[in-house]
UniProtKB/TrEMBL annotation:
Species assigned in the record: Streptomyces griseochromogenes
Gene Ontology BP term (one): methylation
Cofactor(s) the protein needs: [4Fe-4S] cluster
Keywords annotated in UniProt: 4Fe-4S, Iron, Iron-sulfur, Metal-binding, Methyltransferase, S-adenosyl-L-methionine, Transferase
Name under which the protein is recorded: 23S rRNA (Adenine2503-C2)-methyltransferase
PANTHER family noted in UniProt: 23S RRNA METHYLTRANSFERASE (PTHR30544), RADICAL SAM CORE DOMAIN-CONTAINING PROTEIN (PTHR30544:SF5)
Molecular functions (GO terms): methyltransferase activity
EC number: 2.1.1.192
Domain Radical SAM core: start-end pairs: 42-272
């Protein structure tokens, strides 16, 4: 297998009528990562959710990668990322649907492998493998500041993970997270240049009545700055201390009612039977030797 190439080693399609397909891919040194081909019905086209790394160092408690045998291996190279998109794009073409965007929202933190992600993104769009590139991130201070520098490359769209109204609450899910009150002004500055969706995973510990009030107070000054507040149902993974919220409906209703000037949407996972959570399929089905780490990746 040539260096910097990848191969598909497992696929799991979702049940009908969903058209999504989850892939596990392997690099030439046996590092593994995931990608998901998703049908975007309202657009009549496909998207791809792509990993940025083979594993992840962030330790997020809602992610199966944190509890895998090899939670982090290495960064993926730009060539490997591009090769993975090529594999999935071939499948999309065979199903007669265009690939509209690649979203670096899978396993790994895109901001921690930014040089390779940006190089791959330019290649993906330049070679017309996809029309747009999106990036999902925990959006740490230093990385967001780099996006605000003159002539910095920016994806077409971004989604930043909030998950808590204060630092202690946010770190229950993202142990290395920054304080929401200090990152939100930076996120809002990026949102002046590109659409930025805020994502909030719904768990038992962050959907109490007092959390409704705290999140409303935190976000109220930013009305009109972000296109959507995306409230996401938690997809349980083995090993996670988190549990789905029993107050999900009440929490969503309260935020929808109280956040003036915001569009609040609810994202419900429909793929639990196909190991839909980030890193879940990789963690469940693979029993491979620990890959070697390449210098510089």
């Amino acid at each position: 297998m040539p260096e910097n190439s990848v191969e598909v080693i497992s696929t799991v399609p979702s049940k009908a009528p969903d058209r999504s397909i989850k892939y596990v891919l392997k690099t030439s040194d046996r590092a593994t990562f995931e990608a998901v081909q998703l049908w975007e019905g309202e657009h009549g086209a496909y998207s791809v959710c792509m990993s940025a790394q083979a594993g992840c160092r962030q330790g997020c408690t809602h992610c199966a990668t944190t509890f895998a045998a090899t939670p982090f291996v290495r960064n993926l190279s730009a060539e490997e990322l591009t090769s993975a998109v090529e594999h999935l794009q071939e499948g999309v073409r065979s199903q007669q649907g265009p690939l509209v965007w690649v979203d670096f929202a899978g396993v790994g933190e895109a901001s921690a492998n930014w040089a390779h992600v940006t190089t791959a993104a330019r290649t993906i769009v330049g070679r017309e493998l996809a029309q747009q590139v999106k990036v999902t991130s925990i959006a740490p201070h230093a990385w967001v500041r780099s996006l605000l520098k003159p002539n910095s490359w920016l994806p077409d769209r971004l989604m930043f993970s909030l998950h808590g109204a204060n630092l202690a609450q946010r770190r229950m899910i993202i142990p290395r997270a920054d304080d929401p009150s200090t990152v939100l002004p930076l996120w809002a500055a990026v949102a002046e240049m590109r659409p930025v969706v805020l994502n909030y995973v719904l768990c038992e510990h962050n959907t109490r009545p007092e959390d409704e009030a705290a999140l409303t107070e935190l976000l109220a000054p930013y009305a009109g700055r972000f296109p959507i507040l995306r409230l996401s149902s938690f997809n349980p993974v083995q090993g996670s201390p988190l549990r789905p919220s029993v107050r999900e409906e009440e929490f969503i209703a309260a935020l929808t009612r109280d956040l003036d000037g915001w569009t609040v949407s609810h994202h419900l996972s429909h793929g639990r039977e196909t190991a839909a959570a980030c890193g879940q399929l990789r963690a469940q089905i693979l029993d491979l030797p620990t890959p070697s780490r390449r210098p510089g990746l």
